[in-house]
Design goal:
Elements (H helix, E strand, L loop, with lengths): L5 E6 L1 H19 L4 H4 L8 E7 L4 E7 L4 E7 L8 H15 L4 E7 L3 H5 L4 E9 L2 E9 L4
Parallel strand pairs: 4-5
Antiparallel strand pairs: 1-2, 2-3, 3-4, 5-7, 6-7
Length: 146
């Protein structure tokens, strides 16, 4: 891996599916043992995707947002965690949601990632539930009236 600088861009599913799939397969299917049939839910072609890339253009992280403002499938390759990539992608998606005139966003956070989202202003709503064998909590972030 080259240095620690990265960029973030809007990805197009038709053009970037291979890069998005590679990151999500590594993080969710390989590391977290999420069954492939659960990971590939058929919604990707309708979502806004973001890709984070290293200095050489290789994908290091991805996330998506549905038209209703539900953020999901946030995945950062192991070697890139703790470098601000996830935070930068989340900020990018939040700005996109504001630009679309959404009142806020939701997500289903893995329990181990809840603190990450709390630091960005999300709050937990409801109780713990299982998704793909992993404990999750629903979280919301309402945008201030502007």
């Amino acid at each position: 891996m080259s240095g620690s600088s990265f960029g973030i861009r809007v990805a197009e599913w038709t053009r970037d599916a291979a890069a998005i799939r590679a990151v999500r397969e590594e993080v969710f299917v390989t590391e977290q043992a999420v069954p492939e049939e659960l990971e590939w839910d058929g919604l990707d072609s309708t979502c806004m995707h973001v890709l984070a890339h290293d200095e050489g253009g290789a994908a290091v992280a991805t996330a998506r947002m549905l038209a209703n403002g539900k953020i999901g499938r946030m995945a950062v390759l192991r070697g890139w965690r703790g470098r601000g990539v996830g935070t930068a992608m989340l900020r990018f998606l939040l700005e996109a949601a504001r630009d679309r005139g959404l009142a806020g966003v939701t997500l289903d956070a893995q329990v181990r990632a809840v603190d990450f989202y709390l630091r960005s202003g999300f709050r937990v709503v409801g109780g713990r539930f299982m998704d793909a064998g992993i404990p999750h909590l629903r979280m919301v972030l309402k945008f201030p009236d502007s």
